[in-house]
Amino acid sequence: MGILSWIIMGLIVGALAKFIMPGKDPGGIFVTILIGIAGAFVGGYIGTFLGLGAVTGFNLGSLLLATGGGVVLLALYRVIKKK
Questions:
Q1: Dihedral, CA atoms, 24, 61, 5, 46, nearest 10 degrees?
Q2: What pLDDT, in 10s, does the model give residues 42-64?
């Protein structure tokens, strides 16, 4: 995937993670995109480690793995920001 694809995937994943875990978070759309992109990496790593697959492009499996990673990172972000 190219850089533009990662940004688009990050936007989608970040929005899905915010939909799953709604709440007030500082940073707006930029932080949402960054959490989504990082979530794709984390989700791909965890998915590969557990044998579930990897984030390979725009398909349902990759989207689910990336969204799971985005939710994990959003939860961590909220814990860190509260301290």
A1: 70
A2: 887 888 888 877 767 777 877 88
Domain span at residue 18? 3-82
Q: Is 23 exposed, middle or buried (0-12, 13-18, 19+ CB in 10 A)?
A: exposed
CB 17 within 8 A of CB 35: yes
Would you say how long the chain is, in residues?
83
User: Structural domain tally of the chain?
Assistant: 1
Tell me the pLDDT tens digit for each residue of 8-25: 777 888 788 878 877 776
Q: The whole model's pTM is what? A: 0.75
Which residues, at least 6 apart from 49, have a Cβ–Cβ distance to it below 8 Å? none
Contact 63, 13 (CB under 8 A): yes
- SS3 of 42-63: the string is HHHHHHHHHCCCCCCCCCHHHH
